[in-house]
Specification:
267 residues; alpha/beta; 7-stranded mixed beta sheet; two-stranded antiparallel ribbon; 7 helices; 9 strands; 57% helix; 17% strand; disordered N terminus
């Protein structure tokens, strides 16, 4: 009887040991299998993400986006603006100021409101004009459109040194164009940056107002004007504003704002 009990105990111990070993082996195998599957799937997912990223960056951003989102709309805009230009009467008020600038070979920066840049593109063009355009999606569209009307484009970003090519162009005699309340407002408030550029480049600031008799305003911060065909467009050129080294940026900023507001009200 005792021998049978001893044998049963030994058998139970072996069975328990076998159960423990089989359980441990099952856990280890499961971990190994899950780890292998995880690594395989993980690598595949990572590879898919890399491929998608590369496709988005090179195919969409470099090819499709510039063509579909920028070039195609700008082509339509060019056709519309050219039609408006052909069918409209454009009057320039203050042409004597342009004659003086050309005669004296004066460095100049034409200051205008951001909401007028579409009107300005086709209604007032100067040879070798250089325009300051912000580095953004909207700036890409604006740059594409302005280049068609023979404007040389300088892109500006948040880095201060990005303004240097524009200042260099002004010093070389290129007439500059700046939307003094851009790129994001507040509307019809001159930014101090335009005054700083005029001081650094030694250029006069020439206020420039452009207005159309017929058109509609976009519902955005600058009340951007889209002119209609068969229009009467008036370009008003203000008196020059000189910025000297000792002048206050704030005083000159207010002077430019007042001059532009006065030109706008006159029309």
């Amino acid at each position: 009887m005792e021998e049978r009990l001893i044998m049963n105990r030994i058998t139970y111990r072996k069975q328990i040991q076998l159960l423990v070993v089989s359980f441990a082996v099952t856990i280890v195998l499961r971990i190994v299998i899950e780890q292998t599957l995880y690594e395989t799937v993980g690598k595949q997912v990572l590879l898919n993400l890399v491929i998608r990223r590369l496709f988005y960056k090179f195919v969409f951003q470099r090819i499709l986006c510039p063509i579909v989102v920028i070039k195609v709309p700008s082509w339509f805009a060019q056709i519309i603006l050219l039609f408006v230009f052909i069918t409209s009467r454009i009057t320039i008020v203050g042409e004597k100021e342009l004659e003086r600038i050309e005669k004296e070979k004066q460095r100049v920066i034409f200051a205008f409101w951001h909401g007028n840049y579409t009107l300005l593109l086709f209604s007032f063009r100067m040879k070798n004009a250089v325009a300051l355009v912000h580095s953004s999606f909207r700036g890409d569209l604006m740059a594409q459109l302005a280049s068609v009307f023979k404007y040389r484009i300088v892109r500006i970003s948040r880095y201060r040194r990005s303004i240097m090519p524009f200042i260099k162009a002004i010093k070389e005699g290129y007439p500059g164009f700046i939307a003094v309340d851009g790129p994001l407002g507040p509307p019809r408030e001159t930014k101090a940056g335009a005054i700083h550029i005029a001081r650094k480049s030694g250029a006069e600031i020439i206020p420039l107002a452009v207005q159309a008799r017929r058109g509609f305003l976009l519902n955005r911060w600058d009340n951007h004007c889209i002119p209609l065909p068969f229009n009467d467009i008036t370009v008003s050129i203000g008196k020059p504003i000189v910025v000297k080294d000792g002048d206050s940026l704030e005083v000159k900023r207010e002077e430019v704002t007042s001059s532009l507001l006065e030109l706008t009200q006159v029309n």
